[in-house]
Write a structure and sequence with these properties.
The chain contains 11 helices and 14 strands. By secondary structure, the protein is of the alpha+beta class. A hairpin with an 8-residue loop joins strand 10 and strand 11. The protein starts with 5 loop residues before the first strand and ends in an 8-residue tail after the last helix. The protein has a domain of 225 residues: ATP-grasp fold, B domain (D-amino Acid Aminotransferase, Chain A, domain 1, 2-Layer Sandwich), CATH 3.30.470. The protein binds 5-aminoimidazole ribonucleotide (AIR) and aspartic acid.
């Protein structure tokens, strides 16, 4: 496929035209920025990881009825996508408090949320990507009500699918950002990328951050974090996902997911177990900071697992109870870790929330 003119250059990707007006080539860079472009750097190998990870996840989502811009992987860093006009919104879904949510609302980082939250930011660097609500979006004519309803529904559906996918590879999906675009036929497609640049991903057992927060907050081990996530994905586990293979790899991953769903359905006891686990973990959390951090992550995992079990046919209130129990476990963990009261303990941790 022939690469034409550069049509757009963002902070982490370039987009080229092709001979076909409906198709583009996206090329992923190793460049990384944070704090709205103020902090600049490179993460070696990131471009290839983000490209291949996004493609796998897009293919998995497509197989589950979410329309995306993904067409086919061309090389390690390049992918053919459908051309879209990006709707200038960052659509952010959260399952666990972190980042700007923790800052804004004083919710300790790591506290599982009782339900997923959905928020929108205007994609505008000069304005610092301000948050806006439905009425602002409609008043500014960014999109109409029908499109906004579609976007909200798609974002929450993606959350459910991704959460489950990540749990299966031992990762908590804390939060993430999506972008949508309008195709030539008027349809709205999921676009941009899904990667450690755009998701907060924590190891389920240890709570270790495996995402761009390590770069944002100068935590070190940035490249290793991206590699760790990638190695847990089917494409990273030895298969050379060259052009055309991304789909089958993702389909294989999809098959794995169905297995997981069946497991969740079978474990009717999953909810009670989730709640119980969170509570007993919180009782055990007297073992200092590390223990508490792992506790928080495990408690969050219990909440997520319980929510997953509930998704497989059980009552939402039971899932909420489990999530609340997980939240209680997290707070107890945070309190045990520090003489400070819980909220400060959460925010003061060295792994605490950073701005974008
Ligand atoms: N995000 C937002 N703008 C750019 C990105 N990548 C993502 C972050 C995080 C989520 O949106 O990666 O996963 C929420 O970010 P914050 O800073 O609002 O807490
Ligand atoms: N919004 C950030 C930036 O402008 C990107 C990020 O932190 O992910 O650099």
């Amino acid at each position: 496929m022939e690469k034409g003119q550069l049509v757009y250059e963002g902070k982490a990707k370039k987009v080229y035209a092709t001979g076909d007006p409906e198709l583009c080539i996206v090329s992923y860079k190793d460049d990384a920025t944070a704090q709205n472009g103020l902090k600049k750097g490179q993460i070696a190998g990131k471009g290839a990881i983000n490209n291949r990870m996004s493609n796998m996840l897009f293919a998995m989502l497509e197989a589950r009825g979410v329309r995306t811009h993904f067409v086919r992987e061309l090389s390690d860093r390049e992918t053919c996508v459908r051309r879209v006009d990006i709707i200038p919104l960052e659509v952010i879904v959260r399952n666990i408090a972190a980042g700007s949510f923790s800052k804004r609302f004083g919710a300790p980082e790591g506290r599982p949320l009782l339900r997923p939250t959905l928020e929108y930011c205007l994609k505008d660097d000069a304005l610092g990507d301000p948050m806006l609500n439905d009425t602002h979006i409609l008043a500014l004519g960014i999109c109409g009500q029908k499109d906004l309803d579609f976007i909200a529904g798609a974002a929450l559906k993606v959350n459910g699918l991704l959460q489950e996918y990540m749990l299966d590879i031992g990762v908590l999906l804390v939060d993430f950002k999506l972008e949508f675009g309008r195709a030539a036929d008027g349809g709205i497609l999921l676009a941009d990328e899904i990667s450690p640049d755009t998701c907060r991903l924590w190891d389920r057992e240890t709570g270790k951050k495996l995402d761009k927060d390590r770069f944002r907050n100068d935590m070190g081990g940035v490249e290793e974090a991206y590699q760790t996530i990638f190695a847990r994905l089917p494409a990273g586990a030895g298969q050379a996902a060259g052009a055309g293979q991304a789909l089958s790899v993702a389909q294989a991953a999809g098959a794995g997911q169905e297995g997981a769903q069946a497991t969740a359905q079978k474990t009717g006891a999953g909810q009670a177990a989730g709640a119980g686990q969170a509570l007993s973990v919180s009782q055990a959390a007297g073992a200092g900071q590390d223990g508490a951090q792992a506790t928080a992550a495990r408690a969050a995992g219990a909440g997520q697992a319980a929510a997953k079990a509930a998704g497989a046919g059980q009552t939402p209130s039971a899932a909420q109870a489990a999530a609340r129990a997980a939240g209680a476990g997290q707070e107890a963990g945070a309190r045990a870790a520090s003489p400070e009261p819980a909220p400060e303990a959460g925010l003061a941790s060295p792994e605490a929330a950073g701005r974008r």
